[in-house]
Specification:
Number of helices: 10
Helix content: 25-40%
Shape: elongated
Oligomer: single chain
Protein name: XdhC family protein
Organism: Vreelandella aquamarina
């Protein structure tokens, strides 16, 4: 899931704690071209404040306007946008020509709502994979444990429960960047754009203060210490991009102890071979642990500039995340 999803739920929690009723909107299905995938969220208050999105803007504007008119007071409903003949969708035709179905839930500021949103947030932070179920007719919602793979949204859930929506909750994609360098800045910018939660660690406080990538969190501490003391879930990627073995090697030694789906370190083939030997000899890493590390990091694009190297790194991370083999590219 994208970091924006976590931000939507965090904002919904804040509003709910302030006593606001929240409307949580979820893209259920898309037909044809659509700017947002199934499972995408938007949270809205009665006065039009909102976080997240469902489309390029037209759907959000229509929903907020109708909400201000007093519509959507039922606990749960489904509306269809993009079908000009469908009154529920405001007769809106999407510029992209697609159609999307949206689940709308009215969440009053109650202890049950706060508990539900807290559970959502914990799942997105990687504490436990869950399936979220919403009964459209009854207006009820619940969770169940889930370790399966599959689409984010199952709608309808099954033939025995045609009015139930099931939504798979996975951790927000996270990128931990060990060390600040020109490549780090470009990589962080790409990752933020791709929807990753980005955390940059470097022991140099001055470098951290000068690091300026909107949307990235900067920690003035040794990356290896951060990795060792903060829980990394299996939607985490860890990359070292400094050419400084005092930062890179220590980061790799801690990274292989986590369930991170991607671990990589920058360097040439010769540098990588020397690093592997150091990690084996001084770090005590096994052959299996060293095999988890992508070194040299990134796709072989012939990259030269920091931006090109960052592109190669993020392209490889996305490739691994989606389970694509190199020979399938």
């Amino acid at each position: 899931m994208q970091h924006l999803d976590l931000q939507v739920i965090e904002q919904a929690l804040t509003w709910s704690r302030e006593g606001e009723t929240i409307w949580l909107c979820t893209v259920l299905a898309t037909f044809g071209s659509s700017p947002r995938a199934p499972g995408s969220w938007m949270s809205v208050t009665r006065d039009g404040r909102h976080r997240g999105s469902l489309s390029g803007g037209c759907v959000e504007d229509d929903f907020i306007a109708r909400l201000g008119e007093g519509q959507f007071e039922q606990a749960v409903c489904v509306i269809r946008y993009g079908d000009a003949d469908d009154e529920r969708g405001g007769h809106i035709t999407l510029p992209c020509g697609g159609i999307l179905e949206v689940l709308v839930e009215r969440l009053p500021a109650t202890p049950n709502t706060l508990a539900h949103l807290d559970t959502l947030k914990a799942a997105l932070e990687g504490h436990q994979p869950l399936m979220r179920h919403v009964d459209i007719h009854r207006g009820t919602r619940c969770f169940s444990e889930d370790t399966s793979l599959g689409p984010r949204v199952i709608w309808p859930a099954d033939e025995h429960a045609p009015h139930r929506v099931s939504m798979r909750l996975a951790p927000t994609r996270r990128l931990i960047i060990a060390g600040i360098s020109p490549v780090s800045s470009a990589c962080a910018a790409f990752a933020v754009t791709l929807g990753f939660e980005v955390i940059v660690c470097d022991p140099d406080a001055a470098a951290c203060q000068a690091f300026d990538v909107p949307g990235a969190t900067v920690k003035a501490e040794l990356p290896s210490r951060y990795i060792a003391t903060h829980r990394c879930h299996d939607a985490t990627a860890i990359v070292a991009l400094t050419h400084d073995p005092r930062i890179d090697d220590l980061a790799m030694m801690e990274a292989v102890r986590t369930p991170a789906f991607y671990i990589g370190v920058m360097g040439s083939a010769r540098t990588s071979a020397a690093r592997a030997e150091r990690l084996r000899r001084s770090g005590g890493l096994s052959d299996a642990e060293i095999a988890r590390i992508h070194m040299p990091i990134g796709l072989a694009l012939g990259s030269k500039t920091p931006a090109e190297i960052a592109l190669a790194v993020m392209a490889d991370i996305v490739r691994v995340q989606h389970g694509r083999a190199l020979d399938a590219l």
